[in-house]
Amino acid sequence: MIKEKFISNRTTLIVLISACLVILISMGLRQTFGLFFQAFEEGIGCSRTEFGLAIGIQMIFWGIFSPLFGLFADKYGGNKAVFIGFVIFGLGIYMLYSGPNTGIFFQISLGVLIGIALGATAIAVPVSEVGKHFSNKDRTLATGMVTAAASVGYFLAPLFTKYSLGEFGWQETLRFFLYFIFFGSIVALFIVPAKNIPSKMGDDNQQKFFDAIKEAFTHRGYLLLVSGFFVCGFQITLVATHIPGYMQNRGLDGWSATIILALIGLFNIIGTLGMGYLGTKYRKKILLSILYASRAVIISIFIFSPPSLIMSIFFGITFGMLWLSTVPPTNGIVAQIFGTKYLSTLFGIVFLSHQIGAFIGAYLGGYFYDVYGSYDYAWYIAIGLSIFASLVHLPIDEKPLIRQPKQA
């Protein structure tokens, strides 16, 4: 028996590396926006509610455009979709630092344009396009590697941004972002489509788009997966957007939040790679249930313990291990059940639910602070949602659908 190679050909290797670089840039830059809240307050008079709303809008447009760019990628290629996304990303960043950038224009640049761009460049499309180049056996490991690349961005980008904000100011820092975006747009061109999509699902290659959507929305497990991924979006966006303000509110300096964000990025490398590997050995729904239950415990320890540098490090390490570890098993379940022909679209729809949760997490964090002077209620909701998600994944049926060929 010939052992199947993990990297089957040079094209697969190029796509894997390119997708890793794309997500490193896109997700790394996205992770830094929470560090700008004070600069935006002082520079353009933006309140925390307005800032939270902009991030919330960004999450919604990210979610809405993930399945749309996913459909575009399924039809015309992920390289074209991601390249277009980076062009829009650059436009949003340019408008944010050069103006107009106050009032509705702040929401358009940081919220709408960057949100649309993330729909193509972050998570859904790059991860799914890589998944198409791998068999069901190796897919979670491959997508775990791509997701781990986001973690490298999560680690490096906050450190660079914090330094640049102090040395050069927020406008020059955003200008630096354009250089990274330009590089990402070039790399995106190498995310070429898979010539032969691996599938063992009967009539997969003959399935029509609307038949695939109908099939997914009549599958109970898919709907449960959609509802569970909502929780992930709420939690990670609450942390990414409001942890700087939360730490300041608890009397710690700005570097404590930077340490948390950097450690999240560093240890998420271990978490996503580990989850990708475990997804090849164990049932993915069980891994997801354990992951969400662990989040409830970690958040509880963090918010109910006295604030300190040690607790910041603890939270950064432990929550970082779980940060994007949801992505490989979630994407893997979708591919395992439905095949890979419309994987970018179907995972994009799941990701839309993630971003609806992200919008609510970003907005409620700012809203609760402005109304009550505290982020506590947002954290309590995050804990409750973790318990919900740990339970909702258990009934999912992961078995692949077997489609019968249509009668002529």
Description of the structure:
The model has no long low-confidence stretch (mean pLDDT 87). The chain has a single domain, classed as MFS general substrate transporter like domains (Growth Hormone, Chain: A). Helix 3 packs parallel to helix 5 (104-121) and helix 4 runs antiparallel to helix 8 (170-188). The longest helix has 30 residues, at 139-168. It contains 16 helices and no strands. It has 408 residues and is mainly alpha-helical.
- The proportion of strand residues reads under 5%
Reading off the top of the CATH hierarchy, the class is best stated as Mainly Alpha
Say what the CATH topology is. Growth Hormone, Chain: A
Rg for CA atoms: 20 Å
Measured between the Cα atoms of the first and last residue, the distance is 37 Å
* Count of folded domains: 1
Question: Which structural class matches the secondary elements?
Answer: mainly alpha
Question: Nutshell version of this structure?
Answer:
The protein is an all-alpha fold and 408 residues long. It is built from 16 helices and no strands.
Topology:
Layout (H helix, E strand, L loop, with lengths): L9 H22 L5 H8 L3 H29 L1 H21 L5 H18 L2 H8 L7 H30 L1 H19 L20 H9 L2 H30 L4 H25 L5 H21 L4 H14 L4 H12 L4 H30 L3 H17 L16
Features:
408 residues; mainly alpha; 16 helices; globular; single chain; Growth Hormone, Chain: A
